[in-house]
Amino acid sequence: MIKIDNLKLNKNNKDILEKYQIYLLTVKQKEEKTSSSIAIAENSPRNQKKENPEEDPEILNIFGVSLHTDDILIIGLLIFLYIEEVDDPYLFVCLILLLLS
What is the spatial distance between Cα 19 and Cα 24, in angstroms, rounded to a whole number? Predict the structure, then answer.
């Protein structure tokens, strides 16, 4: 900040200087908000990559086959489509291949 203790300024210069100081404060606050939002965005769960893909806990373990949440969702979708008698064999093949991958 600019100190005006020892300066002899007329009223117009003091007004300009006060407005400039207010402007500097707002710029500094905006920079702090921007830097804090960037830090928050970098630490968000969406931007953190999983170092270990096995961190996704298994929901079911049937005969040594561990099923995760996405597997259960795909199986549920396959069952729902079968019950609704959807006649799209390519959709079923794609979902089964997705389940196996």
Answer: 9
21/11 Cα distance (integer angstroms)? 15
CB burial of 50-82 (b: ≥16 within 10 Å; e: otherwise) equals eeeeeeeeeeeeeeeeeeeeebeebeeebeeee
Distances (CA, A) of 94 to 11, 66, 90: 77, 20, 6
pLDDT, tens digit, 9 for 90 and up, residues 19-40: 888 888 888 887 777 766 666 6
CA dist., res. 68 & res. 49, Å (int) = 18
